[in-house]
Amino acid sequence: MDIQTLTSFFGWCSVINGGLFAFIAFFMMLAPDFAYKVQSQFFKLERDYFDKVIYAFLAAWKILFGFFNLVPYIALKLIT
Questions:
Q1: Does the predicted TM-score (pTM) go above 0.90?
Q2: How many CB atoms lie within 10 A of CB 17?
Q3: What are the C-alpha distances in Å from 54 to residues 19, 35, 40, 51, 71?
Q4: pLDDT for 26-50, tens place per residue?
Q5: I want to staple 50 with a disulfide (CB 3.0 to 4.6 A). Which of 13, 15, 45, 68 is the partner?
């Protein structure tokens, strides 16, 4: 693989992951009760614990997104 292909790959990965993250984050801000209602059918969690789990999930996603998508993309852009 050449650098241009890798740059394009990481660029599109960043766009897709960033879009999914933004969608889920906005959904959780706008309709947290609906999300809790749907998830509580599958998992028996208290509301307070559910909020903490979602917050931790979004924080982990943001860190992993930056580390595995944005940093390689920026590094490849810098060397080209």
A1: no
A2: 18
A3: 17, 10, 13, 5, 24
A4: 999 999 999 999 999 999 999 999 9
A5: 45
The pLDDT of residue 72 is 97
Tokens of 49: 């614990």
Burial category of 69 from C-beta neighbours within 10 Å (exposed 0-12, middle 13-18, buried 19 and up):
buried
What is the 3-state secondary structure of 41-75?
Answer: CCCCCCHHHHHHHHHHHHHHHHHHHHHHHHHHHHH
Give the pair of three-digit tokens for residue 22: 């933004």
- Is the separation of the CB atoms in 70 and 15 below 8 Å? no
Per-residue confidence (pLDDT) for residue 11, from 0 to 100: 97
List Cβ neighbours of 28 (8 Å cut-off, separation of 6 or more): 35, 54, 58
